[in-house]
Design a protein that fits this description.
Elements: E1 2-10, E2 19-24, H1 27-37, E3 45-50, E4 87-98, E5 104-120, E6 127-132, H2 143-163, H3 185-195, H4 200-207, H5 212-233, H6 239-242
Parallel strand pairs: 1-3
Antiparallel strand pairs: 1-6, 2-5, 3-4, 4-5, 5-6
Helix pairs in contact: 2-3, 2-5, 3-5
């Protein structure tokens, strides 16, 4: 069944369960927040969807009050040909504070994954017809699922150790931090999705996985690959460089 959601495009994906504070300053998004705050708490939901950064922001017109840097922010108008990723996550407003000048500081939490079916770009505030994606239940007591979870936890522990500079502790058999990592397959899969330092398309691939076990298997492969690269080169990817459009000058 299709439902309608106002969209808030960002340069990165939200994942279910992740807390995301937002500063709302554009008139179109202020109006969106005001309309949502008039609804019951469990209906204050809007869609966050990532977009491909290259050529995705419309040129900003400088104003006299602007400084020398007129760079675009994630919430500025999208270019007409902006490409949105097909899977996003709804955000539910949990807290909202209105400033004297009309801006809002809100705290949201990632809720439900959805697939974009149709995007209405006729107004400044994008709206979309979406289909919410189910999160199939998995039997965490199934030995096959337990094996997938254990492999993911070990790969995640190694990845965190390497990122923390503790290369000598990056041991596949290490379980020192297991008590700090959730064992629920869905929660763990989304934690890995959020924590990986990867480009947008890789994160989207994880987000779009059909179920927690598939997401964990994919996440384990990515964690292992990223750990090997970081160990070999001694640095994490410079994601800003990956997303930079070459200058025509």
């Amino acid at each position: 069944m299709n439902e309608s959601l106002p969209l808030f495009p960002l340069t990165t994906a939200l994942v279910p369960g992740l807390v995301l504070p937002l500063h709302i300053f554009e008139p179109r998004y202020r109006l969106m927040v005001e309309e949502l705050l008039d609804k019951p708490e469990n209906e204050r939901e809007f869609g966050i969807v990532a977009f491909r950064e290259s050529h995705s922001l419309a040129p900003k017109q400088p104003s006299p009050s602007d400084g020398p840097d007129h760079g675009a922010s994630p919430s500025e108008p999208l270019a007409e040909d902006a490409e949105l990723y097909p899977v996003g996550v709804s955000a539910v407003i949990r807290q909202a504070e209105r400033r004297d000048d009309g801006r809002y500081d809100i705290v949201t939490i990632g809720s439900r994954r959805f697939r974009l079916d149709n995007v209405d770009r006729s107004a400044p505030l994008l709206r979309a017809s979406v289909t919410f994606l189910p999160e199939p239940e998995v039997d965490s007591g199934d030995p096959r699922v337990m094996s997938v979870v254990q492999s993911a936890m070990q790969a995640f522990d190694k990845y965190r150790s390497i990122l923390g500079g503790r290369l000598n502790e990056a041991d596949d058999d290490s379980d020192a931090d297991d008590d700090q990592v959730p064992t629920d397959p869905a929660v763990l899969s989304y934690l890995i999705t959020a924590a990986l330092v990867v480009d947008g398309s890789t994160r989207q691939e994880l987000l779009a996985a059909p179920d927690a076990v598939s997401r964990l298997r994919l996440g384990t492969r990515i964690l292992s690959s990223e750990s090997a690269l970081i160990s070999a080169f001694g640095a994490i990817p410079a994601l800003d460089l990956l997303n930079t459009t070459p200058s025509e000058n």
